[in-house]
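This section describes the prediction task in plain terms. A model, or a person checking by hand, is given the sequence of a single protein chain and must write out its three-dimensional structure as a string of tokens. No templates, partner chains or ligands are provided. The sample shown here is typical of the held-out split.
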Amino acid sequence: MLIRDTIECRSNVFITARERGKKVPSLCRNGHNRWVNHGREYLARAVTPKADWTHLSNDVVKYMGFGIGGELQTATIPTTPGSLGYDYPGQTTFSDDDISVSVLERPLKVSGTAGRGAASGTWLQPIVVNSDTPAFIGTPSSTVEFMCLFNDSGELDLNGTYTNIPLSEIGMFLSAEAATLASDVVYDYGSGPAYIGASRQLLIAYHTFSPITKTPSISLEVRWQYQF
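The expected answer:
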């Protein structure tokens, strides 16, 4: 029997929405997803030693990011550059079941100015560090959990100048994506219908969900569990 038949990495995503500290059940989401190919390749590198017995890969899980793509998006959003589509154009076709997905379909900036050529701000949010660790081993001991907060500091995370944003996809990213956090070529505005730019961040796990209407008064707590 092959190891791959008996061991798999599962992910569970829990998104909690709060308005001025009070939980908003209608905007909370729980979901399950598979790791995509890039994540599976990362796991193989993470356990492979080099000749000096150091890790073949020194990357670690570090970021989360949201988008407005994914097949569960139901909001009416321009797909080509114009209005909200001007800043974040693209399609809504990605699925949790497709392990070939490698990027968010229509990623959002966590902070800063959206739009063509606007490099201010960042695309991904770092995982919270509590008690000097960014994650903890759960129960059973083969479970690890990461947490990320959006709007926890009172800033307009994800919204920018928009009153509301229909979030519908989320991804987990490695520390290697630090090099493109403020890139202005995450979107290629001349290359439809996908508009994927050269510096689109690569994710290791992907999840799409029914839209969460994110306003500046809504804060989000994401707990993402990996179960081996």
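For orientation: DSSP finds two helices and ten strands in the chain.
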